[in-house]
Amino acid sequence: MSTPLGREQLQRLMGMSSPAMLLVVADDRVSKSLAKRGLTAPKFPAEPHAWHRITPAGMRALADAYEAGLLEQFIKPMPRMKAANPT
């Protein structure tokens, strides 16, 4: 990959992290940049601007970002549970 993925690109890829997930493609710079890099691809080739899915390259880029600690900014921590009072 030539240039690192930006915050919005990582966030969009993370939302598509399941190969079963489809993105309704908006005509925006983030969607276009992910498709141009080969990280997403049209689900239906006859309608290339309708639905996109994550590609194996997108999954690898997401895994690399996860290992580098770049995805934690998008993950909300679970609230701590209070310990039950023994009775």
Keywords:
87 residues, alpha+beta, three-stranded antiparallel β-sheet, 3 helices, 33% helix, elongated
How would you describe this structure to a colleague?
With 87 residues, this protein is an alpha+beta fold. The chain has one domain. It is 33% helix and 10% strand. Strands 1-3-2 form a three-stranded antiparallel sheet. Helix 1 crosses helix 2. It is elongated.
Précis, in short:
This protein is an alpha+beta fold.
List strands and helices in order, with pairings:
Blueprint: H1 7-15, E1 23-24, H2 29-36, E2 40-42, E3 51-54, H3 56-67
Antiparallel strand pairs: 1-3, 2-3
Helix pairs in contact: 1-2
DSSP helix fraction: 25-40%
Structural class: alpha+beta
Q: How many structural domains in the coordinates?
A: 1
The number of distinct helices, counting runs of at least 4 residues, comes to 3
N-end to C-end Cα span? 58 Å
Strand order of the largest sheet: 1-3-2
Strand content: 5-15%
Largest sheet: 3 strands, antiparallel
Please tally the β strands and state the result: 3
- Name the overall outline: elongated
C-alpha Rg (nearest Å) = 17 Å
